[in-house]
């Protein structure tokens, strides 16, 4: 069951994004004094006393976008409004009725959708004249709120519940795979999402940096629902200009952390750059399953092959050498669903548990093949036993007699061997070494290690 959509609309700079953030209890939309920061529809589930809603932040109506994307922004607003069960029409209480407020009001009166008028920025009790004027907009008495200072929010939430009645969602949206689409600017991330969804869910433009917020988009492939997260294009820190780009970059990094799987999109027409390598390192640090998506494959397939790309990636991004590669052309809908199915396989791998007995059997085989180096003056290194203590990522702890003997080189060897033997062949494994306690078990086997 989908949640009822409550859309926040209004002219630019009246506080729509601040309201979404305060209702969500965290920063989701970028907030900046510059009008027109929000372009795409940004949404999040919100829990009320009686159920759940899907809250949608829209771009400012009537804004002249600096990158000539005005029509695209307006289309996103219109789509959000048309799908809404309830509209929160926000105005600036301090300024009274501006011409653009009247423009928004005329558009909303054409909709057969209930509207709650919100007079925002009521930080002081000296706006009586301006508030009285707001009745002329035709939506009754406004509710007085301050999104910045959380004033009037409780009363507003009660009114939303009253207006929606039984239409409020009974339960939270089910847990599903969250797939973050990340990569450099203009790699085709938004086109990938729109093609999958079958509508212009996010704005696509040749203008670099069109996407600013991280946008969650619900999608379905072969009956399985999942969440796509469109992110701002990653670029060098030295080239980030102003607060908007800084927060867009920050949200892209946060999207990687909250994603279950990452699709790292790479432009097939360009060589791997330092930005790509840096991004690969960040994904590896988070131990995220990742699909390396080679987009715009139609521009490169005559000059190279998929096998060549796999070898190329292993050389330039060795930290992700376990990651599968998918060749796509988003503009032509080539292999997009195959990429999603691959991501779902990684999601399943990351949430798999393996018995302690099976892990220890494989550890014993690996130790026979090669054990850790026995350094002079230290105890002969032994692994007493190992166990999986977590999923997403699969986390394996080895209890040992001397942690110092298990250096990074040997731990990499151990992880690679475990990946080949366990159902984690295409995802990262987190390996922990812990010193044994008195109650720990005996060593797996008193084996003479064959050091390489």
Properties at a glance:
single chain, 452 residues, alpha/beta, GMP Synthetase, Chain A, domain 3, 3 domains, 6-stranded mixed sheet
Model description:
The protein contains twelve helices and 15 strands. Strands 2-3-1-4-5-6 form a six-stranded mixed beta sheet, with helices on both faces. The protein has a six-stranded mixed beta sheet with strand order 8-9-7-10-11-12, sandwiched between helices. The protein has helices spanning about 15-25, 70-80, 100-110, 130-135, 155-165, 190-195, 240-260, 275-285, 305-315, 335-350, 355-370, 410-420, and strands at about 5-10, 40-45, 50-55, 85-90, 115-120, 145, 180-185, 215-220, 225-230, 260-265, 290-295, 325, 385-390, 395-400, 430-435. Helices cover about 30% and strands about 20% of the residues. Helix 4 (about 130-135) links the parallel strand 5 and strand 6 (about 145). The protein folds into three domains: about 5-165, P-loop containing nucleotide triphosphate hydrolases (Rossmann fold, 3-Layer(aba) Sandwich), CATH 3.40.50; about 180-350, Rossmann fold (3-Layer(aba) Sandwich), CATH 3.40.50.300; about 355-435, GMP Synthetase, Chain A, domain 3 (2-Layer Sandwich). With about 450 residues, it is α/β, with parallel strands linked by helices. Helix 11 crosses helix 12 (about 410-420).
């Amino acid at each position: 069951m989908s949640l009822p959509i409550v859309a926040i609309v209004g002219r630019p700079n009246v506080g729509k994004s601040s309201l979404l953030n305060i209702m969500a209890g965290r920063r989701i939309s970028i907030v900046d004094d510059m009008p027109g920061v929000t372009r795409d529809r940004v949404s999040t589930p919100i829990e009320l006393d009686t159920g759940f809603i899907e809250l949608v932040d829209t771009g400012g109506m009537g804004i002249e976008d600096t990158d000539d994307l005005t029509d695209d922004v307006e289309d996103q607003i219109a789509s959000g409004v048309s799908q809404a069960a309830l509209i929160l029409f926000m105005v600036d209480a301090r300024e009274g009725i501006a011409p653009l407020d009247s423009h928004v009001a005329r558009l909303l009166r054409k909709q057969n959708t209930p509207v709650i008028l919100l007079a925002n920025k009521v930080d002081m009790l000296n706006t009586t004249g301006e508030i009285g004027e707001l009745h002329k907009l035709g939506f009754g008495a406004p509710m007085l709120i301050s999104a910045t200072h959380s004033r009037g929010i409780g009363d507003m939430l009660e009114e939303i519940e009253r207006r929606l009645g039984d239409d409020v969602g009974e339960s939270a949206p089910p847990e599903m795979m969250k797939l973050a689409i990340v990569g450099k600017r203009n790699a085709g991330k938004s086109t990938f999402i729109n093609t999958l969804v079958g509508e212009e869910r996010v704005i696509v433009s040749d203008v670099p940096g069109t996407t600013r917020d991280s946008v969650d988009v619900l999608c379905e492939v072969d009956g399985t629902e999942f969440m796509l997260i469109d992110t701002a294009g990653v670029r060098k820190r030295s080239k980030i200009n102003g607060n908007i780009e800084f927060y867009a970059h920050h949200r892209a990094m946060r999207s990687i952390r909250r994603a279950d799987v990452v699709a790292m999109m790479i432009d097939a027409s360009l060589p791997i750059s330092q930005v790509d390598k840096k991004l690969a390192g960040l994904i590896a640090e988070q131990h995220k399953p990742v699909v390396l998506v080679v987009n715009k494959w139609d521009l490169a397939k005559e000059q190279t092959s998929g096998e060549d790309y796999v070898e190329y990636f292993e050389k330039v991004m060795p930290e992700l050498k376990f990651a599968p590669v998918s060749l796509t052309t988003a503009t032509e809908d080539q292999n997009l669903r195959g990429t999603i199915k691959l991501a779902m396989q990684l999601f399943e791998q990351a949430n798999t548990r393996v018995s302690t007995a099976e892990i220890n059997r494989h550890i014993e085989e690996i130790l026979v093949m090669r054990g850790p180096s026995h350094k002079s003056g230290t105890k002969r290194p032994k692994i007493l036993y190992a166990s999986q203590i977590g999923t997403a990522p699969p986390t394996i702890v080895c209890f040992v007699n001397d942690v110092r003997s298990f250096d990074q080189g040997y731990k990499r060897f151990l992880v690679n061997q475990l990946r080949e033997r366990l159902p984690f062949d295409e995802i990262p494994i987190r390996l922990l070494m812990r010193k044994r306690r008195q109650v720990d078990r005996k060593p797996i086997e008193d084996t003479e290690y064959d050091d390489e």
